[in-house]
Amino acid sequence: MSHSIRVRIYYEDTDCGGVVYYANYLRYVERARTDFLESRGASLKQLMAEGVYFVVAEASLKYLSPGRYGDILVIESVVERAGPASIVFSHIISREGSDEKLAEARVKLGCVDSGLRPMRLPQKIREAVATQT
Fold first, then answer.
1. CATH of the domain at 104
2. How many structural domains compose the chain?
3. How far is residue 106 from each of residues 33, 91, 114, measured CA to CA in Å?
4. Which end of the chain has fewer CB within 10 Å, C or N?
5. What radius of gyration, in Å, describes the C-alpha atoms of the chain?
6. Cα distance from N-terminal residue to C-terminal residue, the chain
7. Would you say residue 1 has pLDDT above 90?
8. To 10 degrees, the CA torsion angle through 24, 27, 28, 31?
9. Would you say the pTM of this structure is higher than 0.85?
10. Which position among 13, 15, 71, 99 bears the catalytic label?
């Protein structure tokens, strides 16, 4: 099972040549992960109010083809693995209406408390990602 979102590329997202600035892909996959969890009933705002936070422990991106001003990107997200205190997401970024992959990303999130100490994933998060593992 996967989850996908659409992202429109605005001029502000690009460099002077109209190509998506490379670091923006991290922003797009962040949106995709948040939407993934929210769509499964795991409100990050509520978790933060309860003292549960996620931090990026690892991130890797492989750039395959440039996104450009005016494109609509599709970011597909899947949970690769969920451990006791972490979740690993894989993302494929493509141009809408095309099978062409623009980038692949892999991000490991660690679950921490308000003091940034590692903690076990709350039950609601384990349930939200259980169908993905």
1. 3.10.129.10
2. 1
3. 11, 6, 25
4. N
5. 15
6. 9
7. no
8. -170
9. yes
10. 15
